[in-house]
Write a sequence for this structure.
């Protein structure tokens, strides 16, 4: 077979393959879409922040008083099943420019699913000198993760709805989605609601209502459309 005849056969072969390739892979249109999903979830744990604070001409005395209040608070909290107690934010600072007084303080964080028991504990700790700084219902880590999964599912369904609607408007159909991106769950709890004053010492036990919390999730993807 001569070189010219080989080239001719090759040209015929390519001419036959090209229409077939065109049928297999028609032109595509790419849409960049994003969607947000959300769910309302009832909080399952109560969180409170109580402040132990002492002022004294001696920094050491102020610290000892705060240490005693925190130790008593931790002991009372540990006696209640299901209450998680944590001491945070210890500080000692001069109360004036002449350093005539010193202020020591530390925060006691309380969390638990038994709202009435934790509220009763918070009231008793106020009677012992701790000041209630904030109080609110929150979502625990497992509940927040599950809620984010449900919100992600809602967001993905919304994304599919958007893709189908856009395809119908353009007279095309959705071929597939690619590069699907989903955000990570935020495990940071909702900020505690502060009391009316910076710190509060109330004569009656505090109250807190469990208002639903909204958990959101965002997704995005490239949507390939074909005629």
């Amino acid at each position: 077979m001569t070189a010219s005849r080989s080239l001719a056969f090759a040209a015929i072969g390519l001419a036959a393959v090209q229409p077939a390739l065109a049928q297999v892979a028609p032109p595509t249109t790419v849409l960049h879409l994003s969607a947000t999903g959300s769910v309302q979830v009832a909080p399952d744990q109560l969180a409170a922040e109580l402040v132990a604070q002492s002022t004294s001409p001696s920094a050491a005395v102020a610290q000892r008083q705060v240490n005693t209040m925190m130790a008593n608070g931790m002991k009372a909290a540990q006696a209640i099943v299901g209450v998680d107690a944590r001491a945070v934010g210890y500080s000692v600072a001069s109360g004036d420019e002449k350093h005539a007084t010193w202020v020591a303080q530390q925060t006691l964080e309380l969390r638990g699913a038994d709202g009435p028991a934790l509220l009763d504990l918070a009231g008793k700790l106020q009677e012992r000198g701790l000041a209630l700084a904030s109080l609110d219902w929150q979502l625990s880590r497992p509940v927040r993760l599950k809620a984010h999964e449900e919100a992600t599912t809602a967001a993905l369904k919304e994304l599919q709805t958007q893709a189908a609607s856009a395809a119908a408007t353009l007279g095309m159909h959705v071929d597939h989605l690619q590069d699907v991106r989903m955000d990570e769950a935020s495990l940071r709890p909702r900020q505690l609601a502060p009391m009316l004053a910076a710190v509060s010492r109330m004569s009656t036990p505090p109250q807190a209502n469990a208002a639903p919390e909204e958990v959101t999730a965002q997704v995005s993807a490239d949507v390939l459309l074909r005629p």
User: Anything to note?
Assistant: The mean pLDDT is 85.
